[in-house]
Amino acid sequence: MTATRSHIMRVNIKHSGKTHQVEVDPSKPATDFKDVIYQATGVPVDRMKVMIKGLLKDDTDLSKLGLKPVIGTAGPLPTAPTEKITFIEDMDQDQIAIAEGNPAGLVNLGQTCYLNSTLQALKTIPQLNVALDGFSSTSSAPESKVTNSLKNLFSGLNQTADPVPPFAVLSNLRIMAPQFAETDNAGRYSQQDADEAWTQLLSALRASLGGNAGGESVIDKAMGIELTTKLQCAEAPEETPSTTKERHLKLQCNISINTNFLISGIQDSLNQQIEKTSPTLDRMAAYSSESRLSRLPQNLIVHMVRFYWRRDIQKKAKIMRKVKFPLQLDSLDLVTDEVRSQIQPTNSLVKQILKDRDDRAKIIKRNAGKATSDDATKEVDIRREERQKVEEAVKEKGIDSETNISGMYELYAMVTHKGASADSGHYIGWTRKESEHPIASGEEEWFKFDDDKVSVVTADKILSMDGGGEDSVAYILLYR
Length: 480
Prior knowledge:
Cathepsin B, Chain A, eight-stranded mixed sheet
């Protein structure tokens, strides 16, 4: 090494059960230190995670880590009294959670994975967290108690890395909806459906959280979908079609033997054939029902309808079929003609922005392998300009800022189910991990919430859970 020997010190690093002694110059960039580690261990720099008082970043100033140099000019250097450097691969899950700042998991209180996974997904909704922070009520209504316990739970999860038992939420949920207190023949609490828990929790929140002057709740504003449905009698074409509007808090993705993609399953649920009394024919007749979204919420929930009742075995069975879902969802084909014409310019603009971001990420990955602090700074400026362009387009079109102004969504959280029936198996929650750099090297990362165990996976793992077997499969998808 060419640096002055008085600046150089030796440290021990641990990797795959072996200890290596390497030299480090605190006056040099952290990237130089990582290169030295690569020479000793063979671990590529872009896959390396070095822990020194937290995760070592490329722009970390080594001189501020408190490392003590060894004085000497010749001969073997003595080992400096430094903190041992440990690779993330050699840490247990608790150490990783503390070092990387992983969020806290939830303790399984006995067949409560359905609730834990649902709570972790709900916690990612920004508008809900803001509303809960401001919630205050002395009401004895079960819905208010559920809401208050959710407020306290989310607040507690933000203040610890240790698993938290959701006692109050579970207790109040069972009072409000006794089905969640059902037990089996052995007296143990039964497994429940995560989608039913999701529905009941939103019902409580919808009733308790304050609304606007028009009486619309926070939940309706943040997640409310408006469906405009047109009914046309197939047997009496001359009959005037009827149009109705309804509010919902989620979309359904029906799964048939022909369903291969999420968007087609949603479209199947929006286009139905029904029977009703025809006023012109004065009898039951076939009608085509076509629904389209006339309001796009900022948070779009999609329920993949994987469970159905089997009369022969008198229990719910699971549809195993593989149905691919995207990390980015374009809802343009799901909306009414009026909404499409309104958001089309912004939709095209956002698609171009996303393409440009992807191109920049590919260049960084190809040239350097990792985004530097300079890359991050440039990206912040670029994204500020992008936001200004979108805001100008929205202002010009007069689009409601409390809705999705482009029709483009990004997958942000998910609940998966593992097993063959809703009455058994295991639910797991997954949420997108916020990236330190606007453009990160490699693939984006996600948190996996397996009750109290929290770990990190890549987006490839998320996309792999599209069905085809009894392993974890996407069940509830939260797009933002």
